[in-house]
Amino acid sequence: MVALPLMSGMPTIVDMPLPEHPRMSDVAARAGVSLSTVSRALRGASGVAPAVRAEVERAAAELGYVVSRGASSLVTGVTGRIAVLVPFLQPWFFGVALAGVSTRLRASGQDMLVYQVGDVDELDAYVRSLPLRSNVDAVIAVALDLGDTAVARLDEIGLPVVFCGRRVPGRACVFTDDTAAAAGATRHLLNLGHRRVAYVCSRDQTGFSWSSRDRLRGYEAAMAEAGAEAVVVTEPPGHQGGALAMARLLSMAEPPTAVFAESDDVAMGVLQVARRSGIDVPGDVSVMGFDDNDVAALLDLTTVAQPVTEMGERAAELAVRAVRAAGPVRDHVHLDTRLVVRQSTAVPRSRREGPAGGTEQRG
Amino acid sequence: MVALPLMSGMPTIVDMPLPEHPRMSDVAARAGVSLSTVSRALRGASGVAPAVRAEVERAAAELGYVVSRGASSLVTGVTGRIAVLVPFLQPWFFGVALAGVSTRLRASGQDMLVYQVGDVDELDAYVRSLPLRSNVDAVIAVALDLGDTAVARLDEIGLPVVFCGRRVPGRACVFTDDTAAAAGATRHLLNLGHRRVAYVCSRDQTGFSWSSRDRLRGYEAAMAEAGAEAVVVTEPPGHQGGALAMARLLSMAEPPTAVFAESDDVAMGVLQVARRSGIDVPGDVSVMGFDDNDVAALLDLTTVAQPVTEMGERAAELAVRAVRAAGPVRDHVHLDTRLVVRQSTAVPRSRREGPAGGTEQRG
DNA sequence: CTGTTAGCGCGTTCAA
DNA sequence: TTGAACGCGCTAACAG
User: Fold this and answer.
1) What keywords would UniProt list here (chains A, B) (predicted)?
2) Fold exhibited by the domain B81-176+308-330
């Protein structure tokens, strides 16, 4: 700050009352420069003398000034906000994915707007009303099937969309290969010596989810490949569905020796019924899940791990890139899954009691 | 629409190309009125002829026009956005709370901005930088201890704060009585006939959380009231901590016959170690949790249920009210907890094998 | 390198 | 009941 000769009693610039909601002009006055210089300095734009920039930053800090995004986005058209659409907020998967998105966005100073669009109507209402220019810069759809019309509408508006958790041809997306992962998991059970491997999948009113369908396909392929007969049980989602499914499986003439559940959540229901029925896992039946959520480790469930946090981060990364590029980004980010072998899968009893059989394993 | 005589080949209003990003003036032109009339009509302000209003709404719908929040908030100072601060995104509690907030905000057309502020620095950075005027209308802190300086800063800016999950004197907040709930849970165990009831609590680097402290207090009070000796084990949070704690308890000269864990998550670790050690629950030891998360039901864990969704909804309600009132709201919303008795707690073996003892129970 | 000017899209005075 | 003018706080062109 420049030292000035002052008459005593005269209010100095330091004595001036701090405005409650300082604006850029307050900073400009305090730093003794013009508005545009403040704007440039605070934005980190080039063409500002280092000394001036420092002075401006000091003035801003002293006033507790922060640029109003609303005002600047009115001019630039960039809001600094990214919308994340999720079908649910409660399940483990979405919390983890959001954490990933949040981390990445923080790094570039973007804000995260979260919308829960449980049903098609909500999605529709969202797409219809919200994403008008000057509300968000991009949309990340997590484990969500935006319809064609919704996507078309976003395109029309010029809003980049990133799909997280699903492969969408011609679109920016981050995904894992559910089919291959499910096939790998099924092979793990087959390689242990199981032949009667059942698959539990879930469907709600809306029908199968795509990841559900993809996993089923992988299971069927692996079974066919091994010449084993596929046994598929369909119930509502969640562990309730898993419990119902396991009950049905246990009432079959020849119950399976291994159960592959579409998700860890469903597997929990399977395990619960097994435990209550006095059926030993993996002694009597092997159980395999999918997701590797936090409870899976707790219950020693063999499962397929997805890098969910990373999926969120990468999706956010694509969204940020699309905003910067001011145009659509079409990258496909394919992340790997990982088979996590724990205590819930083992060689079937028939094998153990017969001639000693090795426990092979393939990816 | 008014039918007009047209020369053929002359472009009609219907033929006019739809602007990609229609603005209010486009609507005004299409409806044949002025800008201010459109503004009034679309905002539902009074003083617009019904016929004119209908015409404006039609024009807006045909153009796919939506008011730009950015522009209007520049004038009104209201953003239509509410910030939700959470320490974590992954745990069950936060997903459920966010779902509650989301539901309530949707009803009033507000958007939800989510910030993960895991450590004090992040919180500080957030409070320092973001909530300047024209970014959000209110802040909801979920299970978070904003420091005094942070709160003071928000006050200064005039941003309403709502605390969710904690009682804060003189502030708008939604909470449950952790102390009373923990005391009730402890009494449940005492009433079953347990005397050696251990409490497992968690602390991380930061120290005890307040809910942790409150619950501990309730446990201690109930034990003292019954003339029983308190046994408290402290470990890191999460089920790992629970597992460590249970291991320590099992190595005591006289292990407890009942374990009350600070949270369901911690209780999971306790159950895991019990199961692996061949200790029957509740045969050998009763286990009680706190939260009633989705896994608790699955594992038949007796626990204390909190109305988490409702907490989120009510917090959002207070935030919306504060925005409407354009001033601070100081309501305290006290919600009840509920003891959920499942299969993990029972009369201790000593009682069962001795003279028949009844299973009493108090709230 | 810096200052001046003209809007960004809308709500809100006023006057009609 | 409607319309015209002004300004919300800021950035982007220019000119200096």
Assistant:
1) DNA-binding, Transcription, Transcription regulation
2) Rossmann fold (3.40.50)
- Placement of tokens 């001033």 in the chain: B327
Q: Could you identify the residue whose CA is nearest to the C1' atom of nucleotide D5? A: B36
Q: Are A302 and A340 in contact (CB under 8 A)?
A: yes
For the domain spanning A2-76, the CATH number is 1.10.260.40
Q: Cis link prior to B282 (omega < 30° from 0)?
A: yes
Separation of alpha carbons B104 and A185, rounded Å: 41
Which residue numbers in chain B have pLDDT < 50? 1-15, 355-363
Q: Are strands B338-340 and B303-305 parallel, antiparallel or unpaired?
A: antiparallel
Burial state string for A85-123 with b = 16 or more CB within 10 A and e = fewer than 16: bbbbbbbbbbbbbbbbbbbbbbeeebbbbbbbbeeeeeb
Instruction: List pLDDT tens digits, range A198-256.
Output: 999 988 766 557 788 899 999 999 999 999 999 999 999 888 899 999 999 999 999 99
Widest distance between CA atoms in chain A = 103
Q: State the pLDDT at residue A4.
A: 32
Query: Using the beta-carbon criterion (under 8 Å), do B69 and A95 form an inter-chain contact?
Result: no
Taking one residue from A and the other from B, the number of pairs with CB-CB distance under 8 angstroms is 130
CA atoms within 13 A of residue A132's CA, in its CB half-sphere: 21
Q: Which candidate, B118, B48, B131, B64, places its Cα nearest to that of B90?
A: B118
The domains of chain A are located at: 2-76, 81-176+308-330, 178-305+340-352
Answer whether B81-176+308-330 and B178-305+340-352 agree in fold: yes
- Do residue A298 and residue B92 have CB atoms under 8 angstroms apart? no
Domain B178-305+340-352 fold is Rossmann fold (3.40.50)
Residue of A nearest to B88 (CA): A99
How far CA B299 is from CA of A261, A263, A276, B289, in Å, comes to 18, 17, 11, 11
Q: How many CB atoms lie within 10 A of CB B204?
A: 12
**Closest to A112 in 3D by CA, of B97, B316, B83:** B83
